[in-house]
Write a structure and sequence with these properties.
single chain; 483 residues; alpha+beta; Beta-Lactamase; Heat Shock Protein 90; 3 domains; 5-stranded antiparallel sheet; rod-shaped
């Protein structure tokens, strides 16, 4: 059942108007009926009492001279009043002296004669009045009357008041229908404007002010709010256009950068690797065939040359991997990350064994992705977690997944390693950025840049949280599907 608070504003106002009008009319009608009947009852008592007193005064001589027939004749004159049913005169000893009964077949019921009284008893009324002569009571007159006239008065009063009640309610309803529009029309207009704006949305629309009261102030404030929203919407639209322009320019820059990287990778693979391979090969031959004839300085120089050549080869390999994120990409397909991480752990078996590390996998999701790049992503992240471990403390790596809504999932890769200062959280994803020297940890500084590029290619984000000396966490947000 719908409550009054859930009704439309027009029906709600009419309900309030009719409820107040009904209660007011009920109370007024009840008061009118009560006072009308009370006044009628008092008039009836007053009239019958006067009639009884008159008959009693006319009967004083009959009482004094013991003339019962004359007293009976005087009582018979009461038949002129149709309300009187019966009457009687009693002497000073309260003995019945004379009586009158309108219906001869109806027996006279002796009343209780006790003082001066006027009582309503059931369907009749009784009047008892003393008969006085020079201040002395010489007898008592009793009068009994029916209440038919009083009952008729009740019916007439109720019919009249009821007719007025219904008529007034009808007038109130039709007047209320007209008057409620003074309040409901501005509110409905305001609600209609709000609905049109929600469907458009067109913030140039304005509500029409129809009065100077609180509703008028509400309309003014609503229009002012629309103006502010319109201004902000225009600013946001402008900012969005500027952002689109910047994104477009940035995309072009990235495309140029990717093309340059691809070109460099091509050069590196053909023009750099071949001479570098010769340097490494001849360096190995020098060390193998002439180590005995070289002095310590020459051997040291040779070792530095070989280390630099090895780092250069690793750098070229990593640059090739970075460029292949887009150039050698594979179509997306459902990838069970639990299975992918298990394959990565097989590849890292030697590193795990040497470091004494442990990797825990907790409920990783299935995503639409390039399986080879997902493998590369987790190999870099887990490999870094095992590499950047604290001395004397076996590394522990925990991979966990959670569906954060229907479209996205969150993957966390957490470790108990050396961590990093949080101020470097953005820097570590840039190519060639290293927070540690080559003497501490091997690497070219491209691994996390490759991870970021892989995640971005999949429409996700990657961020890092570090606590120096306590470990780090990498948070990856990926779409669960590509629909």
């Amino acid at each position: 059942m719908i409550g009054i608070k859930d009704l439309p504003i027009q029906k709600k106002l009419m309900a309030v108007i009719m409820t107040v009008a009904t209660l007011t009319l009920l109370l007024s009608s009840a008061g009118i009926v009560y006072f009308d009947l009370e006044f009628f009852k008092r008039d009836m008592v007053r009239n019958l009492t006067a009639l009884a007193r008159t008959a009693g005064e006319n009967s004083r001589a009959a009482l004094v001279f013991d003339d019962a027939p004359n007293a009976k004749r005087i009582l018979s004159s009461l038949k002129a009043d149709p309300q009187v049913i019966s009457a009687a005169i009693y002497d000073s000893g309260k003995r019945k002296f004379a009586d009158y009964v309108r219906d001869p077949d109806a027996p006279f019921v002796p009343p209780t004669i006790d003082g001066d009284k006027a009582l309503f008893i059931g369907d009749h009324m009784e009047i008892v009045q003393p008969i006085l002569l020079e201040g002395e009571t010489v007898g008592t007159i009793y009068l009994r009357a029916h209440l038919q006239e009083f009952d008729n008065r009740i019916k007439t009063t109720l019919l009249t008041v009821g007719s007025i009640f219904v008529f007034t309610l009808l007038v109130t309803f039709f007047v209320g229908v007209k008057l409620q529009r003074i309040i409901s029309q501005p509110i409905l207009s305001l609600a209609g404007t709000a609905k049109r704006i929600s469907l458009s949305p067109d913030y140039s629309l304005r509500a029409v002010k129809q009065s100077e009261d609180e509703l008028g102030i509400l309309v003014e404030q609503f229009n002012e709010m629309l103006y502010q929203i319109q201004e902000r919407d225009a600013a946001l639209h402008k900012a969005y256009e500027e952002m689109e322009h910047r994104v477009e320019e940035r995309t072009k820059e990235l495309q140029r950068s990717n093309q340059e990287l691809t070109d460099f990778a091509s050069i590196a693979s053909h023009d750099l690797q071949e001479p570098l391979r010769k340097i490494i090969t001849f360096g190995d031959r020098l060390k193998a065939g002439y180590e005995s004839v070289l002095d310590e300085t020459a051997i040291e120089y040779l070792g530095r040359m070989q280390n630099a050549s090895s780092r250069m080869r690793n750098l070229i390999d990593d640059l090739l991997k970075l460029s292949r994120v887009t150039t050698k990409a594979q179509p997306f397909a459902p990838v069970d990350l639990n299975h992918t991480v298990e394959e990565v752990l097989e590849d890292l078996e030697v590193l795990l064994k040497n470091s004494g590390g442990t990797v825990k996998i907790e409920n990783l999701p299935t995503v639409m992705a390039d399986s080879s790049q997902m493998r590369q992503l987790f190999q870099n992240l887990i490999g870094n977690a095992l590499k950047y471990r604290k001395e004397g403390d076996p590394p522990v790596v925990v991979l966990s997944g959670e569906i954060i809504d229907v479209r996205f999932c969150e993957i966390r890769v957490e470790d108990n390693g050396i961590g990093f200062d949080q101020k470097f959280a953005e820097r570590i994803f840039k190519p060639f950025e290293r927070l540690h020297g080559h003497s501490q940890f091997e690497g070219t500084g491209i691994g996390l840049a490759i991870c970021q590029r892989i995640v971005l290619r999949h429409g996700g984000t990657i961020s890092a949280q570090g606590d120096l000396g306590k470990g780090s966490a990498f948070i990856i947000i990926l779409p669960t599907n590509r629909e």
